[in-house]
Amino acid sequence: MGFVCPRCLGGSMKITSSIELPPDSRSDEITVQILKCSKCGFAGLGVYEETRRGKLDSESFHHRGYYMDDSTLASIQKMIGQCPKPKKSGCRCRIHRSLGRVNEFGEWNWLEKTPHKETFRLQIT
Q1: Cystine design at 29: which of 24, 50, 109, 122 (Cβ 3.0–4.6 Å)?
Q2: pLDDT digits over 61-98, tens only?
Q3: Where are the beta strands (DSSP E) in 1-68?
């Protein structure tokens, strides 16, 4: 599965690494992803959140891209690489605890404290 790159508009942007975070008070799944375009070299952050709360057989999800500076993105990439179990949301390593932090209402808020510019639409090719 690929995505449309927001820079070159080619369909060659892919998830190169990711980490599954614990659920919060709103979402059953939270995934932080590094996105890279093999055509133009663009890199950004992806965040996938899904909830299955509500009516039976209903689910809702949001998948957004975030423009970030190279050093912040490299730091996040390094953190994901240091986790021993990035596909396990229940991992209790320091990376999961850091990326999975929540506010006093139990809402995931790591992204609020991470320097990012604006968002871009993730469109599947």
Answers
A1: 50
A2: 889 999 999 999 999 999 999 999 999 999 999 999 99
A3: 13-21, 29-37, 43-51, 60-66
For the chain, the straight-line distance linking the first and the last C-alpha, in angstroms and rounded, comes to 7
Cα(36)–Cα(20) distance, integer angstroms = 18
Q: Determine which helix (DSSP H) or strand (DSSP E) holds 77, and give its type and residue range.
A: helix 70-82
Buried b / exposed e over 12-29, threshold 16 CB at 10 Å, is bbbbeebbbbbbbeebbb
Residue 29, helix vs strand vs coil: strand
Q: What proportion of the chain, given as a percentage, has pLDDT over 90?
A: 83
- The whole-number average pLDDT for the span 16-38 is 96
**Token pair 């730091």: residue:** 75
H/E run at residue 120: strand 119-121
* pLDDT of 59: 61
99 close to 78: Cβ distance less than 8 angstroms: no
Q: What SS3 class is residue 110? A: helix
Spatial CA neighbour of 46 closest among 28, 61, 63:
63
